[in-house]
Description:
This protein is an alpha/beta fold. It has nine helices and twelve strands. The strands form three sheets. The protein has an eight-stranded mixed β-sheet with strand order 6-3-7-2-8-1-12-9, sandwiched between helices. Strands 4-5 form a two-stranded antiparallel sheet. The mean pLDDT is 97.
Amino acid sequence: MGTIVAAAIVAHHPGLFRPEADRLALGNGKDSDLVEGFERVRARLDPAQPDTLLIIDTHWFTTQRHICAGADHYEGLYTSAELPWILHGLRYDYDGAPQIGREIQRVGDERKVPVFNAVDPAIQPEYPTINMVNTIRRDERILRVGICQNARMNHFLQMGEVIGEAIAAADGRVALIACGALSHRMIDMDFVPRNPCNWHPDNISDPAHVVLDHEIMDLWAKGDHARVIERYPELRAAAYEGFGGHYLQMVGALGGRDCTARGEVLTEYENAMGTGNVHIWFHLH
Length: 285
C-alpha cells in the first residue's frame, strides 16, 4: 500500500535559476528568499522519506484529458522555448514512477475520469519539473501530472481523488509537489517597477491580488481548505497559475474539502513578473 507522506506548493519561476549576480542585480542587492527556500523544503522532505515526487506541473498544459507521464525513465537536454536566454542546455536524467502511472490510468477508467498515462519517454518535461529535479530532488522517482486546460474546479478535484486512490493502491511513499505560483497575472512589457527590488510584492501586477494571496495563505494556515475551494472563482479571476489546478489536484488527493492540513509558509512572499510566489509546506499529521 502506498502513502502520501508530504505535500507542498513550491514556486518554480525562471528568475530563481539566473546566476546569483543577476539575481542580486534584479533585487537591488537582495537575493530571492525562494532560492534558500528550496533547502527548507528539502529539510521537510528528508524526515518524510519519500521515494517518489509527484509533481503537478503548471506549465504542462494538456487538452481533453488529464495526463501523467508514466514511463520508466526520462533523459535528455532541455532548452526552454519560452525563455531560452535563461533556461538552456539543462540536462535531466531521472527514473519515472510507472506503477503509480498505471494505477492512475486504472482508477481513472474505473471512475470514468478522462485520464491518459503517457508512457512515451520522448515526452520532454517542462521547466517547472526540471527546476524541481534540480533543486529539491535527491534520488526520488518522478511522476509528472499536467494541467488539463479545459478542466474546471470539479474536474481538478476529481483528478486529485484519482491520484490519491492510485497512490494508495501502489507501493511507495509519495510527496505531492504542486509546482506553481499563486496569483499569476503578469505585468506588461512596459511596466514601471513600484519598488527597486524586483522580488518585492509591490511589483505584483495588481495590489488586490496581493490581498487575495494573503487571505488564501491565512486559510491554508488554519487548514481551512473547504473555504479555499469555496473561493475558487476568486482564484480563477486572479489567474492563479495553471488555473489553480496544481493546488486543486493536490488537495483533491488529500481529501478535498475534508482536508485540514495546515500550511506553513517557508519563505517570503515574492513577486516574479507580476505574479505571487511562495513555498508552503502542508502538515499532514
